[in-house]
Design a protein that fits this description.
CATH superfamily of the largest domain in chain B: TonB-dependent receptor, beta-barrel domain
Radius of gyration of chain B: 27 Å
Order of helices and strands of chain A: HEEEEEEHEEEEE
Helix content of chain B: under 10%
CATH class of the largest domain in chain B: Mainly Beta
CATH topology of chain A: Immunoglobulin-like
Structural class of chain B: mainly beta
Oligomer: heterodimer
Helix content of chain A: under 10%
Largest sheet of chain A: 7 strands, antiparallel
Structural class of chain A: mainly beta
CATH class of chain A: Mainly Beta
Shape of chain A: globular
Number of strands of chain A: 11
Strand content of chain A: 35-45%
Number of strands of chain B: 42
Chain lengths: 182, 768
């Protein structure tokens, strides 16, 4: 109803506009362009897996940096999410951490003796997955899929143990790396 | 139904010999049946003010005497007839000739040769106020689905788009109060922002073109129209209420009108419902809320000069199934596997949270017409529409309260029409139209917009000529349109910058139609039309993820307008007063038909892999058949059967057209009861709908196979009752009475959930 007077005014006095101005290019604050999975071995060696797609869904293909891990080594893993469309880059990891109860990372790979365990918890005591511990065993190659689910069912069967099957929610991130353990 | 408007009334004033006595007037008359022309026996005549009346005799005559001079409201009714109301200023003895539509099961607008101004020779079916009110719980699209050849694209509850002969969105014109509805019609999850309860009549023109309207229609038109205000000095109106069990929905609608120097009508509707229920689970977040108002004014300034004004405001908040909001293709595939969608909850709720849509549509129209003579007139119309659409998604970082899509469109429409009836049944109509549209993305979203900002200037003109004979009529017409669309898009590559486009389109439309009454009972109608449609902004420029379908859609800036040639041929007839048949066949050929083609390519993003869809052009044909038949078994029992068949093909690739309605069959049985106590017009209807599986589709054209065929059983019981000056209309309806779990091919939620389960609706309408 509040629009009716405006309808009249706009209607009676508006005339043809020449150009669709002004255009405001929105500030894409929510976009995640980059995922870094940094693994630091007990001996101090650092391996970083990176998925970077600066222009979002369209345009150029994303750039993926894979890495090699040592056998029988324990790494502490840290995930970092960035929005590099902004300068300086915005750290999205903080947002996920703040809303930890609504987010969970899942790690899936196919090597029998490679183990990834959660190293952090949300306010309810459930894992988030920003911090992890990765232990390698024998040599081998695998795909490692890292998935971030928004609003998963964290109390679903085996979800807290890292099984995505009953997690639900929607996928905010899903990237695949090649891991070479040698 | 058009024929219900034809209550032909003849007034014969007799100068009474005994003028001294005031209460000595008589009202007499005769009631006949519209269909057969025969007398109606036992028809009721009731004078509301005097609470008295009469019953017609075997010749259909009635006689009421010793009535005082004054103003009266009369009601005429009969079993199985639509009742008629009449306002009478009684100054002398009066004779009335009343025609009631007894065969109201008869095919829509069957027996009437009169045509509506805007419709002409093309095939049309109208739903009038009574039907609209008995379906107060339905959206515009679901309401007209009962017409053969009409389907709905559904997207949750209350988000429905009509499909006529396979055309929807921008290819189907929706004319609201004489003006093409503007808004974001391109979205298949954007329903028309129209409250059907504001309209008195909704007409579907299953036609070949819409020459008189500035629209992109490739054939069919939906006309939503309020009636003219009755020239009656008393305040009249109606109040409607309904309750529906599925979703615990409630709706209230109120309308009042009066004509005293100036005529006015005010209508308001409020509706609210919560989570809908399939046979097995609640559909979380499928509630909706709606609040609408409309104001209408009419004034005869002089005998030849009329003016009118109309304002309406539509406001809705529409929940979208929570479980249908998903991420990537893996999520979608996971959703297919589930028996019930993610986020399903045990309890019912009225809450609407993200994802949901918030839609406002405000409409204002001023119109004036001048009659040079009875046959020659000119009409000037100005209309403005403001359409606001905000869509909210589940977002990270507390941004859920910010819309993910926020569009505002303002359009200004001006039209000048001229009409001249001349010579022996010739009619010429011509008009000029202009429309300016300004479509803006509000920058509050923090997301790259799905479609760009644009301003568009459209100019058009048409001319039609019609000639009628006793048994035939011919119409010929042409139309020219010019559009200049200036677009400001945001680049998809970095750095983000504004990319401008300036498009000019010129379109031609033409139409030729004829009808011929072969005998008194059979009529043949044929139409052929040429129409064009400009590519829409989403088809040209979209580039990104389309939520809910898990696909990346790529526009193509080189798309050209579509050109369609459509032909229809129909036969309508009756055998005695028993069997009524209507058959309509159509064939449409569309050159450069724009469609979303699955490319078999996958695009990798940080959210995973998404299938890539591209807007492409091909040549397409759509052929179909709409059949209806009614058989009046006896005075009380009638049955109706409807069948719609449609076959769409991409002739260039030799494959089926995607997203075409499945063939369907409808049948009902109605029984009119005798008057029971004070209840009149008691009617019971049992209805059946069978929707076939869409088999005209290749496996690679969809993520999953089309759903199986399904059958729905429904019933309705309605009755009327006069209590002093109030006329009540009660109804009870049941939908999906067998509580079938089913999914529909045109329902985009079919990937995630079943369709609605059993639903009971009770409604009451009081007219005063």
């Amino acid at each position: 109803m509040r629009w009716i007077p405006i309808v009249l005014i706009v209607g009676l006095f508006s005339c043809k506009k020449d150009a669709p101005e002004p255009i405001v290019i929105p500030n894409e604050e929510e976009v995640i362009t980059t995922l870094n999975y940094t693994l630091t071995a007990t001996n101090g060696d650092v391996v970083t897996f990176t998925f970077r797609d600066l222009d979002g869904d369209g345009g150029t293909e994303p750039v993926i940096t894979n890495g090699a891990l040592d056998t029988n080594t324990t790494y502490s893993g840290v995930l970092e999410l960035l929005n590099e469309t902004e300068s300086p880059a915005e750290n999205i990891t903080e947002e996920v951490e703040e809303e930890g109860a609504e987010h969970q990372f899942f790690f899936s790979e196919s090597l029998a003796d490679l183990n990834i365990e959660y190293g952090d918890t949300d306010s309810d005591g459930n894992p988030i997955g920003i911090k992890t511990t990765l232990k390698t065993g024998k040599a081998g190659k695998t795909d490692l899929t890292i998935t971030l689910r928004h609003q998963p069912n964290k109390s679903g069967a085996a979800v807290a143990g890292g099984d995505i099957t009953n997690a639900g929610g929607e996928t905010d991130i899903s990237v695949v790396f090649s891991v070479d353990v040698k | 139904m058009l024929n219900r408007y034809i209550t032909i009334l003849f007034f014969f004033g007799y100068s009474s010999a005994v003028t001294g006595q005031i209460c000595s007037q008589t009202i007499k008359g005769n009631i006949t049946d519209l269909g057969s022309g025969g007398a109606i026996q036992y028809g009721n005549v009731f004078i509301e003010e005097l609470k008295t009346g009469a019953v017609t005799d075997s010749l259909g005559d009635f006689f009421i005497q010793n009535i005082c001079k004054g103003n009266y409201h009369l009601v005429f009714s009969h079993i199985g007839c639509e009742s008629k109301e009449l306002y009478l200023e009684l100054t002398s003895d009066t004779v009335l000739k009343i025609i009631l539509d007894h065969n109201h099961h008869e095919l829509h607008e069957f027996s009437v040769s009169t045509h509506k101004e805007t419709v002409e020779i093309q095939e049309s079916t109208a739903l009038e106020i009574e039907t609209i009110r008995e379906n107060a719980n339905a959206s515009l699209s679901c309401l007209i689905e009962q017409i053969s050849g009409v389907s709905s694209i559904k997207n949750g509850s209350g988000i429905d788009k009509p499909v006529v002969h396979g055309m929807y969105g921008n290819r189907l014109a929706i004319i609201n109060n004489g003006v093409a509805q503007s808004g974001q019609q391109w979205g298949s999850d954007h329903s028309p922002e129209i409250d059907p309860l504001v309209a008195n009549e909704i007409t579907v023109v299953k036609g070949v073109g819409a020459l008189k309207f500035q629209s992109n229609s490739l054939g069919s038109v939906i006309l939503v129209e309020p009636n003219n205000i009755q020239r009656e000095p008393h305040l009249h109106g109606s109040a409607n209420y309904f309750f529906e069990s599925n979703g615990l929905g409630n709706g209230f609608n109120f309308s009042v009108q009066q004509y005293k120097n100036i005529g006015w009508r005010a209508t308001a509707t409020v509706k609210k419902s919560g989570d809908k229920h399939t046979p097995n689970y609640y559909l979380r977040n499928t509630g909706n809320e709606e609040a609408n108002v409309a104001l209408q004014f009419e004034k005869s300034i002089t005998k030849h000069w009329n003016a009118s004004a109309y304002f309406s405001s539509f406001n809705a908040r529409l929940g979208v199934l929570r479980g249908s909001h998903i991420g990537n293709l893996t999520d979608l595939e996971e959703a297919f596997e589930r028996t019930e969608p993610f986020f399903t909850q045990e309890e019912f709720s009225y809450d609407i949270s993200a994802p949901f849509q918030e839609v406002n549509h405000h409409f204002g129209k001023l119109q004036t017409s001048y009659y040079f003579t009875d046959n020659q007139s000119i009409e000037l119309t100005y209309a403005v529409q403001i359409n606001q659409r905000k869509e909210f998604d589940v977002r990270r970082g507390g941004r859920t309260g910010k819309p993910a899509l926020s569009l505002e469109q303002v359009s200004n429409f001006t039209e000048l029409n001229y009409k001249n009836q001349f010579g022996k049944e010739w009619e010429l109509k011509t008009g000029l139209q202009s429309n300016f549209t300004d479509n803006v993305n509000l920058p509050e979203t923090g997301i790259l917009p799905l479609i760009p900002n644009y301003v568009s200037a459209e100019y058009g003109g048409f001319i039609t000529l019609e000639k009628s004979w006793k048994k035939a009529a011919v119409e010929l017409g042409g139309r020219y349109d010019y559009e200049n669309r200036k677009v400001a898009d945001i680049s998809t590559d970095l750095p983000r910058r504004v990319v401008k486009y300036d498009n000019v389109y010129e379109n031609l439309s033409a139409l030729l139609g004829a009808n011929y009454a072969v005998t008194k009972s059979w009529k043949i109608t044929g139409n052929i039309g040429l129409a064009q449609r400009n590519p829409e902004v989403n088809e040209l420029y979209s580039n990104g993820l389309h939520q809910g379908v898990s696909g990346i859609e790529l526009g193509d800036i080189n798309l050209q307008p579509e050109t369609s040639i459509k032909a229809t041929l129909s036969v309508k007839g009756k055998v005695k007063q028993k069997l009524f048949i209507e058959a309509l066949g159509y064939h449409q050929q569309i050159q450069d038909y724009i469609f979303l083609n699955p490319t078999n390519l996958v695009r990798l993003t940080i959210r995973g892999a998404f299938p890539l869809f591209e807007y492409q052009q091909t040549n397409a044909t759509i052929s179909g058949l709409d059949l209806s038949a009614i058989y009046q078994i006896n005075n009380r029992l009638a049955t109706k059967v409807q069948y719609s068949y449609l076959f769409g093909r991409d002739t260039e690739a030799g494959i089926p057209l995607v997203f075409m309605p499945a063939n369907n069959l409808f049948g009902n049985l109605t029984y009119d009861f005798k008057q029971w106590k004070k209840l009149e017009n008691i009617e019971l209807e049992i209805n059946n709908r069978y929707v076939f599986e869409q088999t005209n589709l290749l496996p690679e054209q969809d993520f999953i196979a089309p759903p199986e065929s399904y059958y729905l059983l429904g019933a309705k019981l309605s009755a009327k009752r006069q209590v002093n000056k109030l006329r009540f209309h009660f109804y009870v309806k049941g939908e999906n009475l067998l509580n079938q779990a089913y999914r529909d091919y045109l329902n985009r939620q079919r990937y995630f959930a079943d369709d609605l389960g059993i639903n009971f609706i009770v409604g009451i309408n009081a007219k005063f």
